[in-house]
Write a structure and sequence with these properties.
It contains 2 helices and 4 strands, in the order βαββαβ. It is globular. By secondary structure, it is α+β, with helices and mostly antiparallel strands. It has helices at about 15-25, 50-60, and strands at about 5-10, 30-35, 40-45, 65-75. InterPro entries: Dimeric_a/b-barrel, Tscrpt_reg_AsnC/Lrp_C.
Length: about 80
């Protein structure tokens, strides 16, 4: 069974579209959508294990230029 999560992303001003387009290309990313509100991009990710999920978020998503902050929300009930 895989692990899923939502990653809430804040970006530098004016960078949301660029950030979401880049995030969409990462393996493990199911959906990345630009939104309004306190976050600029909401990302749905999936990985084999919680460790793999952590590596995906820290080593790939958070490294996208233009991101200022992320909050990861693991799905607890599929």
């Amino acid at each position: 069974m895989s692990v899923q999560a939502y990653v809430l992303v804040q970006t530098a001003v004016g960078r949301a579209v660029e950030v979401s387009e880049r995030i969409r290309t990462l393996p493990g990313v199911r959906v990345a959508r630009d939104v309004t509100g306190p976050y600029d991009v909401v990302v749905e990710v999936e990985a084999d294990t919680m460790d793999d999920l952590g590596r995906l978020v820290v080593a790939q998503v958070q490294q996208v230029p233009g991101i200022t902050r992320t909050v990861t929300c693991p799905v607890v009930n599929l």
